[in-house]
Amino acid sequence: MATCHTPTPTRADAAAPAAARTIVLAGNPNVGKSVVFAALTGTYVDVSNFPGTTVEIFRGRRGELEIIDTPGVYGVGSLNDEEAVARDVILTADTVVNIVDAVHPERDLFLTLQLIDMGLPMIVALNMADEARKQGVAIDRDLLEDLLGVPVVEMVAVKGEGVDELLARLPEARPGHADPALDADVLPLAARIGSRAEAILVLEGDPVIAERHGIEPHASADCVYTARRARVNDMVGHVLTTTTEGAGLGAHVSYLMMHPLTGLPMLGALLWLMYKVLGEWVAGDVVGFTEGTLMNGYYEPFMRGLVSKVFAAGSAGYTFLAGEFGVVTMTVTYLLGVILPLVAGFYLLMALLEDSGYLPRIAALADRSLTSLGLNGRAVIPLILGLGCVTMGTLTTRILGSKRERFIATALMAIAVPCSAQIAVISALMARVGGWYALGYFAALLAIFVAVGTVLNKLTPGVSTDLLIDLPPLRVPRMGNVLRKSSTKVYHFMKEVAVFFLAGAALISVLDITGALTWVQTVAQPLTVGWLHLPKEAATAFVMGFVRRDFGAAGFFTMNLSSAQLLVAMVTITLFVPCVASVMVILKERGWRYLAGLLVTSVSGAFLVGGLLTRLLEVLR
Amino acid sequence: MKMRNGQRKKQQGGTQTLDTMRRGEHCRILGIDDDRARGQAIRFGMGEGALLSCITKVPAGPLVMRSGRQEIAIGRQLAQRIRIEHLDPQGSC
Ligand SMILES: Nc1nc2c(ncn2[C@@H]2O[C@H](COP(=O)(O)OP(=O)(O)O)[C@@H](O)[C@H]2O)c(=O)[nH]1
Ligand SMILES: [Mg+2]
Fold first, then answer.
1. Residues of A with Cβ-Cβ distance to B37 under 8 angstroms
2. For the segment A4-31, what is each residue's pLDDT rounded down to a tens digit?
3. Side-chain half-sphere of A134: how many Cα atoms within 13 Å?
4. B12-91 has which fold?
5. Is B30 on the interface with A (CB under 8 A)?
């Protein structure tokens, strides 16, 4: 690790290209890239405090400039999806704006030096200057500028400070002082493949870039990384002065959040609060208004009126469009009246959790339990979202580190996690039968969740990744961020799933019109009556449960069941196949083999557990 | 009190692994026996040679380490693959 900090310009400081066209924002997670992006483009996209919740790319414009926001990464390479995505975008950049968190230069400058080694024209935005001052961290900006060889601008992105300077100095962006020790290897390689940036990546062993050029990746990653790390540490030693060691109240709260003795009650309180807000208020009052009053009261009668002008009531066309599962009636009602408020509520709460920095700490707390299910702490994100809507959770399994974890998490959600719409109906039903049965329901689900996870952990091939996450500082969430962030997520979610809901409803309508639905209902009766000791109408509820999970549960409202029967029915319907929309998303994300396996397992599992529970309860009496 | 961790094979030369750290202790990283994690850790500033302190140890769960102002949660199993040198007066029991 022999590198010195003496800036030895390796290339002529050529004047920057006059009109830079593509500006790529790059930086570690949580350094304010999205806020800068918003400040530059006027559109706001995504603010996240959890490393890796976005792999999407956001583009915006400012006059002539195209501005691209990338996922947060600690380095460019092929370590994970985010890195690969960021790498490919960065390679297209005319100018890179590297956002650096002024509070964590020793972490962030690693990426900075890598970008500089790659020879990209760039400018560094030293963001969070306010936070740095508060924590007694001072960075000698001018010295840093000299050492890096690129312009360095100080910013407080959330207050819009420094944005004008950044724009003003954009034309000064230039390649910085790369590590001269790399030249011997890089220059010939760069000449051969025609890009210094890609040459560096090949040298660092990036298999994807190497393959693009049909060459072997070099095995010198460790060596290059170690030298770069040494340069970063050396540089930080020169430019950084700290006056206070920043470990105050935040550090203590952080500790309490992660220690099981205090963290579990806090998590419990949080989940209870979420239940109160989402399960009771949103799923009850809000949905009651949006679905009941607005959609059922005004929208559906209006649509039925319209459709009946073209198709006679009772005709196949009418049933398809405006029947029980009508494409323009029930589907739209469900999407806008039920899913939209729930998903909005959920993403809003998640955004609050993310922006506060609590989420990664929950991940640390839950890591131990989740490892025995073949997951790591990161999986709390999709699992919590799954409580909102299994479809939402399934889409979010993309953030998990391996195929194995995605496999397990998807199955767990589809089988043992009730969605909020369903929880709402189930709690209403359970309220009639008293606390013990309600408790029994949640205990049974938890047991099944653990059992399914444990079994899958044993059976699923491959290895799960370990938890290795950065814990961002705890912050009071900023309402502006939270709102803008969750609204974008809600929009993307609705856009992504609307078509699945439509397709699902259409499918069910076809089954209905062709008489297949009644046939299924009849066929299922021995199972429901004989095995589960439920009335024969229960079959209808199960079929309905496939369309909408909460419909399934609601189907039992009118059935006059005993407390024990109700418990059996609720457990069985929860374990029973997920709703048609999540089935479609699972099909898209995991493929048909996975889906088929999952459906067979969850249907047989649901009835097996339901039947056993029936007998257990009968014995207990 | 944490003797059960001591049962893990002690590496040659008195080297220990990260999971033997206790809250408040300091260490230097000697090596990370996990390719994926090594690249990630160097990026974080927690690669070979880095000085860390343990700020939280979730029982049987991850360790939360601090280097500078940076906090990182490291799963227990990964911690067992990170070789360290204790830097406290009587670091090894
Ligand atoms: N104090 C302070 N907070 C900031 C600043 N810039 C961004 N943040 C906060 O840092 C968090 C992460 O910002 P974000 O733009 O999502 O980071 P990204 O992950 O890099 O896109 C958010 O909670 C922002 O409110 C800043 O200049 N000062
Ligand atoms: Mg972002």
1. 466, 468
2. 333 333 333 344 444 448 999 999 988 9
3. 10
4. SH3 type barrels. (2.30.30)
5. no
